[in-house]
Fold this sequence. Notes:
Blueprint: H1 2-31, H2 44-50, H3 57-60, H4 62-67, H5 70-73, H6 78-82, H7 109-113, H8 118-126, H9 128-136, H10 142-146, H11 161-164, H12 170-199, H13 205-222, H14 227-282
Helix pairs in contact: 8-13, 12-13, 12-14, 13-14
Amino acid sequence: MRYMLLILSIVIGSVSVVHADYKDAFQKEFIDKPWAGAPIVEEGVCIECHISKNMKADYLKIPQEWKMSIHYKNKVSCHNCHGGDPADAAVSCGTPHSGFVRTPTYKDVPEMCGKCHVGILEKYLKSGHGRALKAAGKGPNCVTCHGAHSIQKASIDIINEVRCTKCHTYQRAKIMKQALFLTEKKIGELEDRVKELKEQGMVVSDLEKALFRTTAGFRTVFHSVNVDLVKEKSTLFMKDLEVIEKDISAITSELGFRKNFSAFLFILFGVFGIVYYVYTKEK
Length: 283
């Protein structure tokens, strides 16, 4: 009996090691490979030109900035914003019929970004920021806060004293940040939980979509730069987040049940194996 327990312990340990080795190999060969889930973005002649020796120094950094951006991660390429044909150097840029849009003027930046971010553009144009830009051509536009090509995933950290005091005092911006804080905090917590479930093999595509819609809607309201409106809408968005949180908890419970049931089966078969061994040995 003593030897049987020793053998069983060795087998279990070996299985764990093999599992770990397999997991590492799978991570290396499938998860981390560029063709296994990384965004496939059509780069074409845009990138070829921008990394050439003939390109101006200021333009050489654009490809790398773009590849580090949220746009790249979401398969938004050069032509999606600037037009042109990335597959044909002759019409990729600089010709009237290519539809190429060069660097927009400062005042025209919101219209370019608004081709995709329609709701945000609408709120922005009605805000103090948008009205200032339209009236004087000097108000903050999209790139003032988000940058041009190195755009990162939006977060509440965009609102900070260094950035906001370039145009005005930080006091009003601080009040806005406080109004956003609780909802943004809840969004971050739910994003982390969804990511954890996804990493454990659970199907969370519906959760991701629901959370994305709610987050996008909330941040659209923020671009109104209206504290009262943000406070009013925050209550509604928090209710939507509570529904998503319940769905996350349900999937988490299901995952816990699966783990516990698997462990139970493993122990059960182990016990049966030991009993069978002892029975045949004594017989």
